[in-house]
Design brief:
The protein has about 375 residues and is α/β, with parallel strands linked by helices. The protein has ten helices and 14 strands. Strands 2-3-1-4-7-6-5 form a seven-stranded mixed sheet. Strands 10-9-8-11-12-14-13 form a seven-stranded mixed sheet, covered by helices on one side.
Length: about 375
């Protein structure tokens, strides 16, 4: 079977986690750089990547990679690519992208050149004067970084963070892919008890359940690549059947969500139901938090100043967290926040902290486990 090169972007700080996921689904020749992982594999790897990667933002099929400092070089580089291997004679091929630290700075101008070069390429391949573009929409994405052009075909369509369960969210949700990365760092397993005392829309708890029960995050949604002519429909049917068979049932996993806002509690319950996982939800203020007797992992994204509250209000909450959650007594805590003074306010230095980006905001994941 034909092998392809793939590119999967991710949140900064989750590259190692994503590369491990890629290896697990059969990806080969894995290379990691800031904010993305590249790998190789046949068409079945593309299918599994979309269904199973929990920390990737999307999966792009690499159409070409070359240097270009002029529009002529950009045009010629694309004109020479074997595009008819990927695009049918009726497919539409809109493009979008970005340029950074490159001679070719104008994104709209690059879009026009790329569109024209692709049209010339495909018209020649199919013996046409004009591409009808009346069929499936095949989104092309480009990046030009330091004059290096990377052209990809988006196989995901809607971003992979859209699992299908969170049609609604509270005022400040954490992205599903970032939540999945945090869950992986916390090493959530099928016999764990997980708690989020600021559950919001339930994303951390739901991603924990998906991980613990081995539910493929993309199992309940569709993908752009399902309309690609070069990826057999049978591969999708087989991969979905295999993913369904691998779901763990009858586990001891439990998840508890609390929030002072009753609407958030209702939202968490509704989203969990859509995701097909069970979460026990209850309205409760952090000041009333009581640690259960059994060991558990507390994983949370508490309110912070730049999000919903004033900094002073957020730090009052952090102090209360320290009073209710410390000492550890067998608990493990994983807390993400952009507040650089969190440890001082909380009352204990973390065993480990790592940089993660929540969108464009630099945060730290503070881990307490000793």
């Amino acid at each position: 079977m034909t092998k392809y090169r793939y590119m999967a972007p991710c949140h900064f700080g989750l590259e190692k986690t994503l590369s491990f996921e890629v290896k697990k689904i059969g990806g080969e020749d894995i290379t990691v750089s800031d904010g993305r992982v590249m790998f190789s594999g046949d068409a079945s790897v593309c299918v599994k990547a979309n269904l199973c990667l929990s920390t990737a933002e999307r999966v792009g099929i690499v159409l070409g990679q070359f240097r270009a400092k002029t529009f002529d070089e950009l045009f010629e580089g694309i004109r020479k690519l074997p595009l008819s291997d990927y695009f049918g004679r009726y497919d539409a091929f809109p493009n979008t992208g970005h340029s950074l630290n490159s001679v070719l700075k104008s994104v709209p101008a690059c879009q026009k050149i790329i569109k024209k070069a692709m049209a010339v390429n495909l018209c020649k391949a199919y013996g046409l004067n004009m591409m009808p573009e009346s069929g499936a929409v095949c989104q092309v994405r480009f990046s030009i970084m330091k004059d290096e052009v990377l052209l990809t075909l988006d196989s995901s369509g809607t971003g992979l963070h859209k699992r299908g369960y969170r049609r609604d969210s509270n005022a400040a949700p954490i992205k599903e892919t970032l939540a999945a990365g945090i869950i992986d760092i916390a090493r959530v397993r099928e016999n764990d008890i997980i708690c989020d005392p600021f559950c919001g829309s339930g994303t951390l708890l739901i991603e924990a359940a998906l991980k613990a029960l081995n539910i493929a995050p993309g199992l309940r949604r569709s993908f752009a690549a399902e309309k690609f002519g070069f990826i057999p429909e049978k591969l999708w049917q087989t991969a979905r059947a295999e993913a369904a068979e691998q779901i763990k049932r009858g586990t001891e996993f439990k998840a508890f969500g609390y929030d002072v806002d009753g609407a958030c509690v209702e939202l968490t319950a509704a989203n969990a139901k859509k995701a097909g996982v069970k979460i026990t939800c209850e309205r409760r203020d952090i000041k009333d938090f009581a640690t259960p007797a059994q060991p558990l992992k507390i994983i949370t994204n508490p309110p912070y100043g730049e999000r919903m509250l004033e900094v002073s209000q957020a730090r009052d909450i952090y102090r209360t967290m320290g009073e209710r959650l410390l000492p550890l007594d067998g608990k493990q805590l994983y807390i993400i926040t952009p507040d650089e003074e969190f440890e001082d306010t909380f009352g204990q230095k973390a065993d480990k902290n790592r940089k993660l980006y929540n969108g464009m905001m630099l945060c730290r994941l503070y881990s307490y486990y000793k």
